[in-house]
Amino acid sequence: MVPADRTILAAAQGHYRGLRLPGSAWSRSRWHPRLDVLVTAGQLWVTGNGETRRYAVADMVLASFATSPQGAMRVDFLDGGSLWITLDDNGTVLETLRHEIWEYEKGLLFDRTDLDWALDVSPAQLAESEALLTAALDVPGDHAGPGFSRLKRQDMMRRSAGLRRAARVDALRRRRRRMLGQADPGGPGTSGA
């Protein structure tokens, strides 16, 4: 697990239900009932199912609450997918991880006064999100049956929120690449979040 010389900044027990890890799936092994999540300086550790996975803070652009399951932690990476995990900790791991990401980015900017913290969010993504939100508010009454308009409205609002999140993640990825002096390979609207 975590080497003895590493200081654990935050720890929590997680749940396998709703767990999503970026990259390949965990190999099959004897089921292990515990899923532990730890934050050390510069790394997130996920240990369970007989394996330990480490994720570098330098590869993360956003740590936030996920939409499903409600209250789960979601981590979006500079490249690749995202990590979703439900924790029993009242947000301690999430806040510690957010602080670690902020400290990492602050370190990148320390020597580079030519960079700014501005986000260049895609106007197209935001416009599409706004159009969905407006359409959701204009959904007519229950003419197609009880609950139809409510479900349609909820779906449109969920999709709108997803588009806003994707725009934010894309902007954070572009900003991080600027900080690292890298070109943006995909341009606006490529997060797939």
Summary keywords:
single chain; about 190 residues; alpha+beta; seven-stranded antiparallel beta sheet; 7 strands; about 35% helix; about 25% strand; disordered C terminus
Walk me through the structure:
With 193 residues, this protein is an alpha+beta fold. 35% of the residues lie in helices and 25% in strands. The chain has helices at 92-110, 123-137, 148-180, and strands spanning 8-20, 35-40, 43-48, 51-56, 60-65, 73-77, 82-87. A 7-stranded antiparallel beta sheet has the order 4-3-2-1-7-6-5, with helices on both faces. A hairpin with a 7-residue loop joins strand 5 and strand 6 (73-77). Helix 2 (123-137) runs antiparallel to helix 3. The radius of gyration is 19 Å and the shape is globular. It starts with 7 loop residues before the first strand and ends in a 13-residue tail after the last helix. The relative contact order is 0.13.
Question: Per the principal axes of the C-alpha atoms, what is the gross shape?
Answer: globular
Biggest β-sheet strands, sense, barrel: 7 strands, antiparallel
Query: How helix-rich are the residues, as a percent range?
Result: 25-40%
Name the average pLDDT: 79
Number of strands: 7
User: How large, in whole angstroms, is the Cα Rg?
Assistant: 19 Å
This entry's quaternary arrangement is: single chain
Low-pLDDT sequence parts? 188-193
Question: Major sheet: order of its strands?
Answer: 4-3-2-1-7-6-5
Strand content: 15-25%
Total number of helices: 3
Cα distance spanning the termini? 30 Å
What class, by secondary structure content? alpha+beta
**N-to-C SSE series?**
EEEEEEEHHH
